[in-house]
């Protein structure tokens, strides 16, 4: 495996440039790529989402999606259709957007202030969690709530596995609860962290998932056995966000540390460190290329939010004006 790490280290020596894009008028909470990788969406405290088009190595903003009356905390794309994404907001709604027009096509009223959202891999359901630890399942044919699950623990992030038959939630106790889906029967609860478990991501190959916690640890789990096979501890602050590269071989993790850690999944070795000037809220690898979109809590010289997002992995030699 040493060969892969050296190969990637060499790649990022030559492609370690980050480009900054002004996206919003307040901090950017969430970035995500469409499944075909042609578009990137961002959600912000400024109550809007933005849609960008990727052309080779540059992003161009196409739309600002307006309609929410509170912060857009998280967003997710329809994995089966690269024209649609959903946003979760504190205004007690989920909105569905057409990425070709920037228009809202559906508004789903929910029971509370929404903080996390995910789209099922088969495209048929959206799960949204609110501040009261209630998870609502939305049918994507009708865009109506199909069912609600109230949890007694603090729910931080929610996710399906790639085969759509398991539903995971990370909790305030440091455990990861696993339920069978769609009946939501509790199957098991795995403990991997000594503090609040904040985020969870699945790799595209279906072998692993990763969790990040307030204990500053990233755990890598075997999806078949539910055992922790590797622990990454290069960060010093609570791990807020994770993303697997498209081939499942690299994992980006970020926190309030002033760098994003890029690790080799198979060995846990460090591949690269992306420097940041502020805490990082969100990271997302491109579904095909070795490009990472991310957003930090950047401020201008007057200490105002810059509302920028960044794209890392660009070739060093190209001039900064390109």
Structure description:
With 322 residues, this protein is mostly beta strands. Helix content is 4%, strand content 52%. The chain is built from 1 helix and 28 strands. The chain has one helix spanning 2-14; strands at 17-22, 28-33, 39-44, 49-55, 58-65, 72-77, 84-89, 93-98, 103-109, 114-119, 125-130, 134-139, 144-150, 155-160, 166-171, 175-180, 186-191, 197-202, 208-213, 218-222, 227-232, 241-244, 250-254, 259-264, 270-275, 280-285, 292-296, 308-314. Strands 1-28-27-26 form a 4-stranded antiparallel β-sheet, with no helix packed on it. A hairpin with a 4-residue loop joins strand 19 and strand 20. It starts with a helix and ends in an 8-residue tail after the last strand. The relative contact order is 0.15. The mean pLDDT is 96.
Condensed summary:
This protein is mainly β and 322 residues long.
| Overall pLDDT score | 96
Strand numbers in spatial order across the main sheet = 1-28-27-26
Rg computed from alpha carbons, rounded to a whole number of angstroms: 18 Å
Count every helix, treating DSSP H or I runs of 4 or more residues as helices: 1
Global outline: globular
Q: How far from one another are the termini?
A: 36 Å
Strand content: over 45%
Low-confidence stretches: none
**Main beta-sheet annotation:** 4 strands, antiparallel
Q: Pairing-aware structural class of the strands and helices?
A: mainly beta
Order of helices and strands: HEEEEEEEEEEEEEEEEEEEEEEEEEEEE
Number of strands: 28
Helix content range: under 10%
């Amino acid at each position: 495996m040493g060969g892969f790490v050296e190969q990637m280290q060499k790649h990022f020596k030559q492609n370690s440039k980050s480009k900054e894009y002004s996206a919003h008028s307040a901090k950017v909470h969430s970035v995500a790529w469409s499944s075909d990788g042609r578009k990137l969406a961002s959600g912000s405290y400024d109550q809007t989402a933005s849609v960008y088009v990727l052309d080779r190595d540059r992003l161009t903003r196409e739309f600002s999606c307006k309609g929410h009356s509170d912060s857009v905390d998280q967003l997710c794309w329809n994995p089966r259709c690269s024209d649609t994404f959903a946003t979760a907001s504190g205004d007690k709604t989920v909105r569905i957007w057409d990425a070709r027009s920037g228009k809202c096509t559906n508004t789903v009223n929910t029971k509370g202030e929404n903080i996390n959202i995910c789209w099922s891999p088969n495209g048929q359901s959206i799960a949204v969690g609110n501040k009261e630890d209630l998870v609502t399942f939305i049918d994507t044919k009708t865009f109506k709530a199909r069912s609600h699950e109230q949890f007694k623990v603090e729910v931080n992030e929610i996710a399906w596995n790639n085969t759509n038959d398991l539903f995971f939630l990370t909790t305030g106790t440091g455990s990861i609860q696993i339920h069978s889906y769609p009946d939501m029967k509790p199957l098991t609860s795995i403990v991997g962290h000594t503090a609040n478990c904040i985020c969870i991501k699945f790799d595209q190959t279906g072998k692993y998932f990763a969790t990040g916690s307030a204990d500053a640890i990233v755990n890598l789990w075997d999806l078949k056995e539910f055992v922790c096979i590797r622990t990454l501890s290069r960060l010093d602050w609570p791990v807020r966000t994770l993303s697997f590269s498209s081939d499942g071989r690299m994992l980006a993790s970020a926190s309030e540390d002033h760098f994003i850690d890029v690790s080799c999944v198979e060995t846990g070795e460090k591949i690269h460190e992306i420097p940041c000037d502020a805490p990082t809220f969100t990271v997302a690898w491109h579904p095909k290329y070795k490009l990472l979109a991310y957003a930090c809590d950047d401020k201008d010289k007057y200490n105002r939010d810059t509302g920028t997002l960044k794209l890392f992995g660009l070739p060093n030699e190209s001039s900064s004006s390109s």
